[in-house]
Amino acid sequence: AAPVAAAPMPAPAPVPRVERAEYVGTWGPTEAACGRRSRRRGYIPATITPDRASAGRTICSFHDGRRTGNAWVMAADCADRGRRWSSQVRLVVDGDRLTWTSGKGTASYVRCGRRAG
User: Which of 25, 36, 59, 108 is the most exposed, fewest CB within 10 Å of its CB?
Assistant: First the structure.
């Protein structure tokens, strides 16, 4: 008897891609902060992942986040040199600019590592 060919397997369904939050990346208060350590002029870049942000000795853990348009709003539990605080954080991305607003005020950043054009 001739061997029976197996029916081809259907292609696996694509895994739904989790939307990458636009705020993820390395950000500096100035373009100089994105450069080599010797050229930063005292500025420190911030590294932001989907669930935390760090700059220097300050670390914030995010939770209960949600997106509204081009803004992400989340609770943040932060610590720096033994001090701890919680805050509501709003991150707004406009191109290569990030605005971080919290109970401590508003700060603007530029994205590090991307070349214009």
Answer: 36
- Rounded Cα distance, 67 and 19, in Å: 11
Helices (H) and strands (E) in the chain, counts: 0, 8
- What are the pLDDT digits (tens) for 12-53? 555 444 456 899 999 999 888 887 765 656 778 899 999 999
Q: Domains in the chain: how many in total?
A: 1
Q: Which residue has the tokens 């700060």?
A: 107
Give the pairing type, strands 71-80 and 83-94: antiparallel
Query: How far is the first Cα of the chain from the last one, in angstroms, to the nearest whole number?
Result: 65
Task: Please state, rounded to an integer, the average pLDDT across all residues of the chain.
Answer: 83
The kind and range of the H/E element at 68 are strand 58-68
- Whether residue 41 lies inside any domain: the answer is yes
DSSP code of residue 103: T
Is the model's pLDDT at 106 over the cut of 60?
A: yes
CA–CA separation, 34 vs 60, rounded Å? 20
| pTM metric for this prediction | 0.74
